Amino acid sequence: MKMTTPIVNFIQTYQARRPLRLHMPGHKGVLLTGCEHDDITEVAGADSLYEAEGIIRESERNASLLFGCPTYYSTEGSSQCIRAMLYLVLLHAKEQGIDRPLILAGRNAHKTFLSAVGLLDLDVEWLYPENEAGYLACPVTPDGLSARLSQMKAECRLPSAVYLTSPDYLGNVADIAGIAEVCHAFGVLLVVDNAHGAYLRFLPESKHPMDLGADLCCDSAHKTLPMLTGGAYLHIGGHLPALFCHHAKQALCLFGSTSPSYLILKSLDMANAVLASKRYTVSLEKTVKKAEACWIKLSACGLRPMQTDEPLKLTLCPRKHGYAGMEVAEHLRQNGIECEFADPDFVVLMVTPAITESELDRVAEVLCALPRRDSVAVCPPALIKPERVMSVREALLSPSEVLPVGECVGRIAAAATVGCPPAVPIVVSGERIDQSAVACFRYYGIETCAVVKEDMT
Questions:
Q1: I need a surface site. Which of 33, 141, 297, 435 has the fewest CB within 10 A?
Q2: Are residues 199 and 284 in the same domain?
Q3: Same domain for 294 and 249
Q4: 17 to each of 5, 10, 37, 245, 263, how far by Cα in Å?
Q5: Based on the domain organization, do 106 and 219 belong to the same domain?
Q6: Is the peptide bond before 70 cis (omega within 30 degrees of 0)?
Q7: pTM
Q8: Cα angle 176, 177, 180; round to 5
Q9: What are phi and psi of 132, to 5 degrees?
Q10: CA-CA distance, 226 to 275, in Å (whole number)?
Q11: Domain span at residue 75?
C-alpha cells in the first residue's frame, strides 16, 4: 500500500519558498537545535489539528486505512487520548441518561487515567488481579470479568465501560477478543490503553485491540513505532454510534494544547508511508524472531525472562539469578546499554526493528556475563486493598501536603505519587494509606507521598 505524506510535502514546499516568517514560533526557522526549519504553526495551507480539513485530515485518513478504523492524531501522547476516550464514554453515557458513569478498570491503570476520572467526575471501581501479581500487572480473564459483570448487573449498576491496560508495562497481554465478547454481551464498552502495543497491528497476524473487538483504544505510537516522542493515535470502532467520531476532535481539543507540534505531526505523517511498506512488515517479522533468539539465550544462562504475549518486550526477573532489577540495569548502563525500566523485581527491555541483530547479541552477551549468585529470597510486600474514603475527584482537587511515607499512615492519598515510568499508582487518590501501602512505597523506593490536608477530611 502506497501512502501519501501531505504534511511532509507541505513543510518541504514551505521551506523551499523561504518566506519571511512573521509568525510563531519565535526562532523563525533559524537553526539552533537543527529542527527549527520544520517547526511551523498553523500558517495558510498547514491545516489545524482540531479543525482538520486539509493536509492533516488527509494524513489521518491514511492512518485510518492503516489501522482499519477511524484514527485521530495526538501530539501529546496517549495521555491526551486516554482523557479523550473517557470524555467520549461520558458523552455516550449521558445520551443514555446516565449523568455520572461508572468505569470498571484494571488496577494497573496509568495515572493519567486517574486524572481523567477526576477531571470528568467519573465513578470508578477496580478490577484486581485474579492471581498473585505485583502492582504493574492485573491479569483479567473473560470468565472472571463475566462473573463480576453478572454480579454488578444483579445489583443494577452495570458500568458504562471496562478499561484495561494491554499490553501492560511488563509485556502481559490480555485476552482482548474474549474480554470484548463478554463486554458486548453485557452492553458495556471496552476501552483499551494500548500505549505499548501500536506495532501489534503490523504483525503477520494482527494482535491489535481494535482488530480483537475493542471499542476505543489509544496507542503511544512513539513507544514502539519509528516516530518522535509525543506522537499517538486515538482509535474508534467503526461500529460505534456517530457520536464517537463526531466528537473525537472535540474530545482531543478539550485536553490538548492549542499549539500542537508540527514536528510530531510530520513524524506521524511520515510514519504512515513507512508502516504501509512491505519493507517494514518484513523487518518487524524478522525482529520478532531476533527477540525470540535473544530470549532463548537469556533463558539458557539463567536470567529467566518472563514468558509474555508481547513479542518485542524482554522482561527479566533477575531475583533467582541473585540480583535486584536495579543492579542489572546498572550493569547494562556500565556496558553502554540503557534499559526502559528497572525496579527491585524486573528489568524491561524494549526492542524494535531499529535494533540490529548484532546489538541484540551484545545485549545477551553482556547480560549472560553476570556471574550467578545465590537467589534473592525477597518478595514485594502484599498490598491489601485500600479503603476508599473520597472520590478520585474530591481527593485530587483538595488542598494537599507532601509527607514522608512513614507519616502517611491513616491519611488519604491525594495526587498519585509515582514516577514515570511506570506511572502506575500503588494507592489511588481518595484511598486511605495503611501500613501495607507504606511497606510497598518503601519497597519501590517511594519516600514521600501527597496526602489530603487533615482539615479537609
A1: 33
A2: no
A3: no
A4: 19, 11, 12, 36, 19
A5: yes
A6: no
A7: 0.96
A8: 80
A9: -65, 125
A10: 9
A11: 6-275
Residues 248 and 195 occupy one common structural domain? yes
Amino acid at 164: L
Cβ burial 388-414 (10 Å sphere, 16+ → b, else e) = bebbbbbbbbbebeeeebeebeebbbb
| Positions in the chain short of pLDDT 70 | 132-133, 456-457
Domain identity same for 140 and 181: yes
Q: Which of 251, 275, 299 is the last residue of a domain?
A: 275
Where residue 86 sits, what CATH number does that domain have?
3.40.640.10
pLDDT at residue 380 in the model? 84
Measured CA to CA, the distance from residue 261 to residue 250 in angstroms comes to 18
Residue tagged 470468565 (cell numbers): 143
Q: How much is the pLDDT for 312?
A: 96
Q: How far is the C-alpha of 209 from the C-alpha of 211, rounded, in Å? A: 5
158 and 183 within one domain: yes
The cell numbers describing 54, all together, are: 486539509
What is the total count of domains within the chain? 3
The reply to whether 422 falls in a domain is: yes
Domain identity same for 213 and 113: yes
| Contacts by residues 61-68 (CB-CB < 8 Å, ≥ 24 positions apart) | 62/3, 62/4, 62/269, 62/272, 62/276, 63/233, 63/268, 63/272, 65/1, 65/3, 66/1, 66/3, 66/201, 66/272, 66/275, 66/276, 67/201, 67/208, 67/210, 67/233, 67/235, 68/201, 68/210, 68/211
* Confidence at residue 457, expressed as pLDDT on a 0 to 100 scale: 55
Residues 6 or more apart whose Cβ sits within 8 Å of residue 36: 25, 27, 28, 29, 30
